[in-house]
Write a structure and sequence with these properties.
This protein is mainly alpha-helical. It is built from 17 helices and two strands. α5 packs across α6 and α8 packs antiparallel against α11. It binds zinc ion (ZN). Zinc ion binds next to β2 and α14.
Amino acid sequence: MIQPLKIFSLNSTKPIQQTNNTKLPHVSFATKPDTFEKTVPQKSILAPAYVPFLGYAHDEQVRALGHIVCPCCGIEMMTQEDMHDVSKNLGCTSKEAVKTLDKYEKHMRPIEKECFNLLKGWSEEKPDANFRDLLRENKAPQLAKLQEKQNTILDTVNEISKQLSEKEQQEIQKVTDLTRKLVASDDKEIKFKRKSFIKDVEKLEPQISNKEVYAQIHQEAEKMPTSQNDVSAFVVKYSERSHKEIGERLVKLSVGTIEHIHPRSEGGRNVPGNYMLECGGCNHERQSIPLGDWVDAHPEMKENSQKYIDEVIKRINKGEMKGFSFYPEAVAKTLYHESNGKLNLKVEGIKANA
Ligand SMILES: [Zn+2]
């Protein structure tokens, strides 16, 4: 007989299936998972409708921080409502889109801001053209710049591989030769893809005996420009997309998202002390990189996460975050722990009655 289940307490840590990019709360089972699975058909517990959103209210409190600085890159983030406003009001011409996006320029990440300013300049000449037409018309010089950067990286990879045996060197050369062809090709069907290049390099790892040299090669391969860190790559990639998609992309990564400080994939829990509002760009880029390593690569996070906490405290003191005065301390503790002491934030000045 199936017993009624005392399911899903907040202090459990078993992750449940994640769908798309939605971060579902961590739930755990009061009963042991294996017992649970024997008595209830697996499907029913995984269907979204059956997921109890116990962490949800806290998640919403953090989300409601809205236009706060990203604790990682320091931009002032946007909200979902801002994003809807952009989507609705891009119109069909660059003139309309520029008018809408101008309001959000201060929220844009650096590469997006640079691209927006290029588009703005081109739009002054041709206000009735849409974003895609403008990118296409101005693609050629950006493509040339991009190819030059890509080829320089391939040259460096070949140079590093000279420290390897002749056979290993030849294997690397095969990959870089093929990549060079893809980079040079203007056939839209077989264009260069950064991820597949990195994967091709990774396939060679077992064959390369000198792991230090392999690591250098891999590190170099990862420097291949992306539309998130390079203006030319942005122009080239998005010249194939629609006007609306280009307009949305300029601000999409500035929208605040829930970041699990201790990554969910590593067992991080769905509790407010493990949440920060972080821009989509930083959240996506970090994935499950350990926080200590992430801080080493992004030292600006020390200053920006302090700004974030200071702003939260200000809002708590204004009475805007009822019942949430524990949050700054809790987050600071998680950040300290997860970064091995590299993020040591001051939590000061919370009023006693807040
Ligand atoms: Zn950010």
